[in-house]
Amino acid sequence: MKRFYIMMILLAVVIGLSACGVSEEEVVDSITEKTDEYFDVDSPAVTHEFALFDIYIPETAEITEEAENYLVIEDQNQTYILFSNNLEDPMSDSFYSQAETMDHHLLLESYEDDERFGYLQLSELEDDYEIQIGIGGIRMTTHSSLDDAEQQLEKMSQIINSIEFN
Length: 166
Known about the structure:
Blueprint: H1 2-20, H2 24-33, H3 35-39, E1 48-49, E2 53-55, E3 61-66, E4 70-75, E5 78-84, H4 94-100, E6 105-112, E7 117-124, E8 129-135, E9 138-144, H5 149-161, E10 164-165
Organism: Pelagirhabdus alkalitolerans
Keywords: Signal
Signal peptide: 1-19
């Protein structure tokens, strides 16, 4: 009888813990609903200047690698890779078109206004998720847990929307 109660308690704990996590569907739906917000964000002031562009980098972040067309940014144990193709204009959909050919994404949403074309992509990997946001010839990528995906996307949208080409 004692075993029965222990098993019931363990079962209740497992059910309770599984109900606490967010599902892929919930995250995908939430990101989809907020797509326009990720591109209409008020960008913080530029904090770093480079040969091709100026950009906002959060105070908590540091640039760990830099080349003419990419940056590797570390922020609180999170790595972001920002790639820039200055031959593509802000209305370019080349990165989006490339993403469309892949069939492993959970979410691929586009955004367009009079001045630029953007997209969001969420893809499941073996242990976590790849998040990508792009505007024209710029894309930013990171890996994240599902629970942190929206928070990462918000941070990435601030950074990518701040870019001013020289």
